[in-house]
Amino acid sequence: MIPSLKLTALSLLLASSGLAMAADPIKIGVDGPFTGGSSSMGVSMRDGVRLAVDEINKSGGVLGRKLEVVERDDEAKNERGVQIAQELINKEKVAALVGYINTGVALASERFFQEAKIPVMNNVATGSIVTHQFDDQPDNYIFRNAAHDSIQAPMIVEEAITRRGFKKVAILADSTNYGQLGRADLEKALELKGIKPVAVEKFNIKDVDMTAQLLKAKEAGAEAILTYGIGPELAQIANGMTKLGWKVPMVGSWTLSMANFIDNAGPGGEGARMPQTFIQEATTPKRKAFIENYLKTFKPKNNRIDSPVSAAQGYDSVYLLAAAIKQAKSTDGPKIKEALEDLKTPVEGVVTIYNRPFSKTDHEAITANIPVFGEVKGERVVFAYPDDAKKASEVRLKDANAKGALAVPAKKK
Amino acid sequence: MQIFTQLIYSGIALGMIYAVIAFGYQLTFATSDTLNFGQGDALMLGALVGLTLVGLGVNYWLMIPMVCVFGAVQGMVVERIGVRPAIKIKSEFGWIMSTIALGIIFKNVAENVWGHDDLKFPSPLPESPIKFLGANVLPMEILVVVGAIALMAAVEVFNRRSIYGKAVVATFNDRDAAKLMGINTGLVITFSYALSSMSAAFAGVLIAPLTLTGATMGAVLGLKAFAVAIIGGLTSGMGIIVGGIILGIAETTTGFYLSTGYKDVPGLVLLLVVLALKPAGLFGKTVIKKV
């Protein structure tokens, strides 16, 4: 950058923030859907991020500089995500980005950060290929601290087939990238168990009638429904089952924990099970503090975080980045990336304690042994198995050799 | 057979939802040759206002007339701000842009007032299904069908029997002649917009317990209803009902017998076929425009 330009940018920044600080803040981009059907995840993630940034700034910031978040609403639209990526890189000049809820948006937007050599900490989007888009390049700037679908799909299958003994299952997935990539993962995981789903059905965002899909599943004799979708449509599935007077268990991706599923499905949603990296229960002092702070600051309805997983992962993503910036002693993209791949001090997060979470070739902080099964009960997500609840205070650490994840396919050309 | 019945029921319920929204398009088209492209948003506003009233403790049935009044006022606002200026300067397309713009504004306002999430609308009727001829129906679905037909019948009777209704019909037949006969056609057009948004708001509270309630609920429904209005014909009440049911059943049966991935296709193919063969719609009267 030309020095004079840098100066102008700096003075503009100071003028706009009204702060006469010696060191300019470190800008962190936050991108997520704060409106629309995915907003409960986006808003919870954003609030988790705000909470972490606040805490870090109160204790002196990073490298003596404050963190500043630049929040943008991508409305869960791929094209909005692309615009925002360009704006954050070229205009706001962020040091790093946290966010992405929707796999499609992440896939469409990440290449701009990859090209600009700015690290992305993906904290919610779960599509398996999200961190593998640039495997063929020497450096990969995309990291993730969410349970990816190659973990979730086998967990769902394990729960439905092995633990609960269902032989015939139907898959209902939405038509977005998220739903269809998840469906492919589910089919693969079922195949490993030698099972073929009796029905594989699709639905669109904003569909209000699920009769056809459910009837097909019912006719095929499905004993359980495996889902990959987001809250509002998942609720329509539960409501559709109530209408048809046909009730089989729902087991699906972690989105079954979204507030807009639980609220809109009402009694029909009770008993739905999903993998969760975090359940809103104060099982460790760190989690207790996080939950209390969150409830105090954002005052969600009924003291229930809309999407506890998103909030926790959003919070952790900032701490991971802050640790990397501290270690790199720089806000330079490549240096932050290198630090992330070789984090020397463990980072205590809400989900887990991140002890060397990433390496040059492994950009996933969450492994198959970390998530537990949650269940909707009394309009909240609780531990599905009492055993998990009992052992919840033992933080589950990353285990790169944990079994149960699907091999991630090589990048499609 | 039971499956087929179930699909038909769901298709009819879905179709009547589309029909009652499409009916609103028809009302304004009948008087002014214009459409309110913010129809879906009028529906959304009605549902959200209804939800707020119910939240304040107003009984569901008492809330309906209040929402209707709100809808009527909202329709008048749309007409005054968006449509009248365009009609005045005889602009062919001005009203399209302005009604779309107003729709977007309403949506944004709703997002700020009611938030971005889809909310649950408490059902006034029991939520457990009733068995009827071997298939399940929700009491709320029956209410939608009955409510939609009642609303359309009421408006039709009003148009045919009352003197004010005759003014509406006269304005439709020949706006200039009606004006010469002493009919305040401007008022009639305002009135038709009020009626149109009122029916949308009514449709909103009617279907909200079945769909979900939120600022974005109107977009897809408004569009599907537009397809229904085209298929059935913009000038025929009967056509709207038939068009709605055809589209609804096409969606559910294709979903089941063909593939749920293609369920929106047959309805839209039908739309194209109708446009190609009978542009005025299945039941529409072909009007020869004399220039």
Descriptive overview:
The complex is a heterodimer of chains A (about 425) and B (about 290). Chain A folds into two domains: about 220 residues, Response regulator (Rossmann fold), CATH 3.40.50.2300; about 150 residues, Response regulator (Rossmann fold, 3-Layer(aba) Sandwich). Helix content of chain A is about 40%, strand content about 15%. In chain A, helix 8 packs parallel to helix 9. By secondary structure, chain A is of the alpha/beta class. Chain B is mainly α and about 290 residues long. Chain B is built from eleven helices and two strands. The chains are: A alpha/beta (about 425), B mainly alpha (about 290). At the A-B interface, helix 2, strand 7, helix 7, helix 8 and helix 9 of A face helix 1, helix 9 and helix 10 of B.
Short description:
Chain A is α/β, with parallel strands linked by helices and 413 residues long.
User: What is the count of β-strands of chain B?
Assistant: 2
- SSE series of chain A: HEHEHEHEEHEHEHEHEHEHHHEEEEH
User: How many helices of chain A?
Assistant: 13
How many helices of chain B? The count is 11
Could you give me the name of the CATH homologous superfamily of the largest domain in chain A? Response regulator
Q: Which percent bin holds the helix content of chain B?
A: over 70%
Q: Which CATH first-tier class of chain B would you pick?
A: Mainly Alpha
Strand order of the largest sheet of chain A: 2-1-3-4-5
- SSE succession of chain B: HHHHEEHHHHHHH
Which regions of chain A have little confidence, pLDDT < 50, spanning 5+ residues?
A: 17-21
Percent range for β-strand residues of chain A: 5-15%
Number of domains of chain A: 2
Proportion of helical residues of chain A: 40-55%
**Oligomeric state of this protein:** heterodimer
What about the largest sheet of chain B?
2 strands, antiparallel
Compute the separation of the termini of chain B in Å: 54 Å
**Average residue-wise pLDDT of chain A:** 88
Biggest sheet features of chain A? 5 strands, parallel
